[in-house]
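Sequence in, structure out.
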Amino acid sequence: MENKENNSTETETKSFFEDWSTWRIVRIILIAFPFLIFYIYNSLHTAKSVKTKKTLHKELKELHSERISLESEITRASKQTKIAEKLKESGLKESTTPPIKIIRESK
């Protein structure tokens, strides 16, 4: 009877990993390895995407401010007084008579 009690005590005192076979541990590692690789890839890809997003956002702000400045420059250059000043140099002058509407008679 002492042998049976002794054996049961030994099995209870075995550590958790001593009971596992090598194949069982290898299977768990083989299952966990692809998840680990996917996790690493995903975190690196996310970091790269965030960096790209910040760069593009900064470039977008610069382009937006450039667009606004170009629009205001074009608006100033297309005013009638500015155009008249530029045309005086070439010999053309601004018309003072209003345009005449031509009406065509239908047949």
